[in-house]
Amino acid sequence: MAQDVPDEAPLSESTQASVAQAAPGLAEARELTAESAKAFLDEFFADPTTDPYYTGASVAIIKDGEVLAESGYGLADAEQEAAVDPQETLFRVASVSKTFTAVAIMQLVEQGLIELGGDIRDYLPELEFDNTTGMPVTVADLLLHLSGLEVRDPKPTDLHPDLDRVVEIEDVVMSRMPDVVREPGSAYMYDNFGYQMLGLIVQEVSGERFEDYVQTHIFEPLGMDSSTFVLTDQALEQLATGYDPAGNPLEPYAVTPTVMPEGGMLSTAGDMTRFMLAFLGEGELDGQRVLSEASVREMEQYRAYVHELLPDTTYGFEAPMQLPGAGSSDAIVTKAGDLIGFSSYLVLLPEEETGFFLTYNQQGVLRNLFYPAFMAAFFPEYAAPAALDDFTPQAAGELDKFTGYYADLRLRPFVTQLTPGEGDGTLTIADAFLGARQLQQVDDNLFVDELTGQFTGFRLDEMGEPTYMKEPYLNPLGYAVKGEAAAGFADVSADDPYAAFIHALQSLGYYPNDNEAMFGPEVAVSRAEYVQRLLAVSMVQPSASSELAFADLEGHPLAGYVQAAYELGMVQGSGDARFEPDRPVQRQEAAVMVWRLLQAQYPNELFADVALAGETAAWAEPAVRMMVALGLYGPEVELDGQGAADYRSRVAMNREQLAALLYRILTQPTDQIVAAQQSAQQAAPEADPGEAAPGEDAPGEAATSQDAPREAQEPATDGAPAEEQLQTPAEASPAAPASAGQGPDEQAPDAQDAA
């Protein structure tokens, strides 16, 4: 897609410098041998920077049909001081299970029992779901995460301590079956449920239970003697203890369904060695064939790209993580896996006849350190900056088509905003996690991030208009969909101070996109409506509990949301078993509900120096200070001449104010704000008493969110209204996917709190 324009530098000097700085050192490759592999592993795990990211780890490396290393590091159980044994210690490999589910499908394809292009209804005729696209969902669509099905991620309760409970695959699939919400094959959304369906297809077509099929047709032929999808007593004895990020041990848990095709496999590094040898051996090991050579080739081939530097998926694998300046190589297939207490990474380089498998008993980013280090040491050519064609960046006006809001298909609260950049060929990209940064265009639909040298790509329709974005940070395993241009509301004028917030949420699909509809900007928000709106932008579903915490919720249409908020610890009621769902919510009550979800992440002492004006109840002051410091408010909050904020705490919140709050929750870079606040507090004692401390407001001056934010910034409008990881859901907090039962334990500061 790049234009052939001689003598044009593909990147600006600043971008070339950032790419060169970010890319791993491209030293001469070390020969990969048993000796060099062991030396690399010993060096890597001896490096103190890796210590926080694992308690125990097991790793295997193969090349040219030979096992170069099978090593254990750290402890499988810290309390027992049990070392990791690469042959005996089992780990939950989580979504690496999907590769084995794909192998089972490909075996049945070889036997003529399944067609990759076949409609899934042909194999699961009892499925009931709506599909108005006119295109069937195929087996290949499920394998490639292109089904178009509405997201159905595991529920928090799908991981539970009852090791004797049995839940069948078909019961979960039939009870949770989603509808098709976009054309199958059109967009990449990482899909756990799709692989659960594939496991059910294996079971139905083969006539064998899924776990028995995999045991008989994959594990046994390959000599993977410890691997299993069933948590037997023997497996429990061999299973490493999982640890949380703080190093605390986790109790053993079972999964739902009990046999989970998308993420329930347990294995050892030694067993995974045998799988890698078989796959890179054209599907055969020690005379036992589990795949034909043709099936192996099929599983290695990427079938969906945003750009040639950004492949998506193959049958059973996904693209490797980007290397700065190099993108993702389609000569490498990988599969990552995460479950509570465990992470894994399977990497295969077929052209090099090389593979490695890394697994560890602490969910986290150890693999993000291991992969680039391994590639830089042994295959630096894959980390070399991409040889981009010469390209003339488009003028600023031509890039306007990319601007707007994008929401992740799987994790909808992950919102990205693109606005015009600082010159031709540039865009500004911003999100709540990294803040704002510049993108420079290097191809028609490809931009390089000047912060890290990684690529962001766009899928363009037949008219050249962007429909989806793929970026490397928030969720590289899927696309974000571009929001529609906001139509506006009949009662919200373009110059209304809240219009930009309202239109942004309209573009993202949180409000109806109908310019004849009435928004009711000054209508007071009820307590139940507030809870529902806040949980909806955080992907929290209504509680299914039949026992309600408040007597006055019986029969209320939003009772499920209020109950979910109660289970999260977000609301406590009025002290007499009533919630008063239809009473207008005071702004200070609304603040306390958010504060209860965030106070474990952001302790009160961070905001103790935030000055408040107006009247705020004592029980709400910590919450209001936090909201002001994080910029979680709209134009209704003003600073006085001394920098004190009047939050209008005792006033009822109305719909336009709620829109501003929801927008802030989705877009405000709160972690960066808190980091700036901490820096300011640390610097304050050393500051000249006559000067404002770094990051603080001087009297009469308003800070921006990049300093010590006390004044929320407006959405970028350019003079017009704003237009348009098996990974379980994250812990509950506004702007992140949340789940009932995972809220902070802290209580409100006073029982008088009516929130």
Describe the structure using short key phrases.
single chain, 755 residues, alpha+beta, 8-stranded antiparallel beta barrel, 6-stranded antiparallel sheet, 25 strands, 26% helix, disordered N terminus, disordered C terminus, AmpC-like, Serine hydrolase
What does it look like?
The protein is α+β, with helices and mostly antiparallel strands and 755 residues long. Helix content is 26%, strand content 15%. The chain is built from 19 helices and 25 strands. The chain has an eight-stranded antiparallel beta barrel. Strands 3-2-1-14-13-12 form a six-stranded antiparallel β-sheet, with helices on both faces. Strands 23-25-24 form a three-stranded mixed β-sheet. Strand 18 and strand 19 form a beta hairpin. The longest helix has 15 residues, at 192-206. The protein is globular, with a radius of gyration of 27 Å. The model is unreliable at 1-25, 687-714, 716-732 and 737-755 (pLDDT under 50).
Q: In percent, how helical is the residue content?
A: 25-40%
What separation lies between the terminal Cα atoms? Answer: 55 Å
Q: From the helix content, strand content and strand pairing, which structural class follows? A: alpha+beta
Largest sheet: 8 strands, antiparallel, barrel
- Assembly type of the shown chains? single chain
Strand order of the largest sheet: 15-16-17-18-19-20-21-22
* Tally of helical segments: 19
Proportion of residues in β-strands: 15-25%
Q: Total strand count, please?
A: 25
The gross shape turns out to be globular
Task: Outline the low-pLDDT stretches.
Answer: 1-25, 687-714, 716-732, 737-755
Mean of residue pLDDT? Answer: 88
Rounded radius of gyration (Å): 27 Å
